[in-house]
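Most newcomers find our protein records easier to grasp once they have seen one. A record pairs a protein's sequence with a compact description of its fold. An example says more than a description, so a record of this kind follows:
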Amino acid sequence: MINSLYYLNNWQKSSSKKKINCNFFNKKIIIKENNSSDLKKVIDSSYNSFHKWSKLPLFKRKSIIKKIANILIKKSPELAKAMSLDTGKNFKDCLNE
C-alpha cells in the first residue's frame, strides 16, 4: 500500500482510513485517501520550504534551477512517454511541451 502524501522528502502516512484501488501502468495499487489534517501538514511544509528557499542567495537558487532544467531535458523522452500514456496525446506533441 502507498501512503499518498509525499513531502519533506519522504512518503508520509495519511491519517485517513479510506483506501482507493488504482491501476498504475498496469499494476494494481492501493492508495490511502487524504483528509483535511493531511492537507494542513502539506501546506505547512510547503510554507516552511518556501521561506527556506527565499533565504537562499540568488546564485544558489539559479544553480539549483539549472540542475533541475538539465534533469528535465535529459529525462524528457521518459516524461513524454508517461504524458502520452496519461493524456492520449501523441509522443511528439508531448516531447515538445
Residues 40 and 79 are 29 Å apart (CA to CA). The chain is about 55% helix and 20% strand.
